[in-house]
Amino acid sequence: MLTVVITAVIVIVLAILLYTGRGRARGSGGQGLKRRFGPEYARTVADHDGDTRAAEQELGARVKEHGSLTEQPLSPAARERYVTRWAAVQEQFVASPQQAVTEADALLARLARDRGFPDGERFEEQIAALSVHHAHYVQGYRSMHAAARGQSGTEEMREAMVEARSLFEALVTEQPADPPRPSAPDGQGHAPWPLTRRNAKGSST
Question: Where is this region: Disordered (predicted)?
């Protein structure tokens, strides 16, 4: 009889430990996803109407599918071409905002592809892969992609390009960019674009 009681106690203790361990594992995974995805975590939870479990399942699937992706380096010549073209698009924004945003969107898609991410023709797949490696900067790209295909106002398009620039910088310089900062036009419709050809040359090795 004593043996049966002891066995039952052991089984109960093991069950409690197993349940606690699983709970900790789930909590640890959630915290890990929050740290990894930052604002993208909150956006995904909102997309799932506050369902944290569903959001974490989606983000976990992204990590599983794209976490092993290795970003490909750019040659100095390719980096220079991208920076030169981005600068030209920025200048074009004053005269033709919609065309500039459309070209910037296509340029960023090609840059991501050349760095080893899925092709821009599959935007949702590309943005999912980018979010795994550059989670803090993908919302700007998402906004610019929407502006390139919608009827946004000039100020909305300008803000979208300013936000998307952070992802462009992170990809073209092959290092993390500073978080996007709010900025104001100079009174003539210009946005302050800090990445110049000189900056890019100085950052390449």
Answer: 172-205
